[in-house]
Amino acid sequence: MTKIKSLEEISKNCRTPKAYNRYFEIERKLIDEGVAESLPQFILYEHQVNGRTMASLARQLGIDKGTFRGLIKKLQIPSKSAADTIADQAAQRRPDRTELENLYKTNTLKQIGEHYDVSKSTVHNWFQIEEIEARDNPLHFLTKEERSANARIGYEAGIGKLTTEERAKITSATIAKHGSPLAKLTSEEKRNNAIKAYNASRISSYTPEQRREICRKGLNQRSKEEMRETWRKNIGDASEEEKQKWHAKAGLESSKARRNTRYYVESRFYVDSQQEGAVALILEKYLTKIYGKTKEEVNFQVKDRGINNGGLDFLINDEFLEWHPILLYSNSSKMGSIPKEEFDSYKRIKGSLDDEEKKEFQEDYKRVLGMNYRNTRQKAVDDSGYSGCRVIHAENICELYDFIERFGGDLPSRDDLKREFRQKVKYVKGCKVERKVA
Question: pTM score, two decimals?
Answer without folding.
Answer: 0.43
